[in-house]
Amino acid sequence: MTQVLDLAKRLIAVPSVTPARGLVFDELEAMLTPLGFTVHRFLAGDPGSGAGAGDAVENCFAIRSGPAGSRHFAFAGHLDVVPPGEGWASGAFEPEVRGELLYGRGAVDMKGAIAAMVAAVAQVPAEAGTISFIVTGDEEGPALHGTRALIDFMRENGHLPDLCLVGEPTSVHRLGDMMKIGRRGSVNIWLSVEGREGHVAYPHLADNPVPKLARMLAELDAIVLDEGTRWFQPSNLEITDLTVGNPATNVIPARAGARLSIRFNDTHTGEALVERVAAIAERHGGSARATISGEPFLTPPGDFSALVAAAVKAETGLDPEPSTTGGTSDARFLRVLCPVLEFGLVNATMHKRDEAVAIADLEVLTRIYARIACAALGRANAALAI
Description:
Strand order of the largest sheet: 1-2-6-3-7-18
Order of helices and strands: HHEEEEEHEHEEEEEHEEEHEEHEHEEH
Radius of gyration: 24 Å
Helix content: 25-40%
Largest sheet: 6 strands, mixed
Distance between the termini: 10 Å
């Protein structure tokens, strides 16, 4: 089972800091085409000149069609990575095996998982059913032109899967100890209060916005959004930035601002939370603007999660904990197509210097993914060389 290691090395060796495009998708296409996949690649975003030029991202939808009427199972993920930073023991984009680990940016999040998906589908007979890959270069960035554009493409061309598995690194201590059945939603809100600048010795001639902002933030910070639900932890509102930008010690500033981040469960919607915050801001003489990154979603435990759990247990002996913890992922978009779950590698080193994956985990993950794909298509695992 050296194939998955070789595939992971090939992907890691191509720098693909978000937004990703070009060579890393060339590698993926070269891997999938010999396996019978038809590969569709396209750019989304702004490839032209002017403000935002060069921010276009590449997306890939690859499909290997099974017999007419067969089920359609999709693997989903991303090839873009976060910037490597400094201080790596070896080059971040020079994959290196040291001991039992493979080092390189994206080894865990999530080129290693993409490699395992490719190695897995090589073991699934084409007649088992339809398999597709939904792969973006815009997950680690704004996520504006990635999976959402892929969803549009799939709808326009009638490629709607029955089930989808996202290969995010969900495991915590050991491969197989956790899978994600949902995620909380996310909204960022920018608050601003306008005042009137003036000399601090003459406050009656000015209007200080800072006390107004402070009272606004105190009220927001005191909010208890909920106590959590059966599957979700409590929602939380965090103050993430304060901005006055006043270089003078004797001037009352003209404006003050702050930023909030809210992670919320399925007792809320992003729109309702924005309206609630905006009303508080207005009451204190301010205003609010927001970006809703995604709504919460839940794939309730059932046949799909049982299928994934059975595949994990068959290879690891573990019963994966169904969880909704952690940050957002592109599953928040894919949920509109079909039931979606996340399962992948141990997440201890993702986004860190010297990111690394256990080679043995890559091999086991390949077998797990092959079992999941096979079962999702209604094919007996005995048909696989696992």
